[in-house]
Write a structure and sequence with these properties.
By secondary structure, the protein is mainly beta. The chain has no helices and 11 strands.
């Protein structure tokens, strides 16, 4: 499975940005798609995930109500809609795919990773 994330950029605080992650090759094995982020000097942080078949979504507390994950099964693409962005949302954002039905928020539960896309929120 290959993942390609794009859509990052520079946005002012309070603004919005949508990231996309296109999956290809063996996507039938994907159970869930997750988004993670990593700020400079910090560990990789779980943002949320979507269960591929059901469309169920789960988020970390810091982004609930502001971020929305969705998917397009035809395009094999997952989206991360980010609203009300804050400077502390600045990070490199990664999409990831898991083959495990027990997947939760641990980065080591994801088997495939995209290359990351930079999101910078200015104050």
């Amino acid at each position: 499975v290959q993942l390609q994330a794009f859509g990052g950029g520079l946005v002012q605080a309070g603004g919005s940005l949508t990231l996309s992650c296109a999956a290809s090759g063996g996507t039938f094995s994907i159970v869930a798609m997750g988004w993670f982020r990593q700020a400079p000097g910090k560990e990789r942080e779980y943002v949320g995930r979507i269960i591929w078949s059901a469309g169920s979504t789960y988020y970390t507390d810091s982004v609930k109500g502001r971020f929305t994950i969705s998917r397009d099964n035809v395009k094999n693409t997952v989206y991360l809609q980010m609203n009300s962005l804050k400077p502390e949302d600045t990070a490199v954002y990664y999409c990831a795919a898991s083959k495990s039905k027990f997947v939760r928020s641990g980065w080591n539960q994801y088997h495939y990773w995209g290359q990351g896309t930079q999101v910078t929120v200015s104050s």
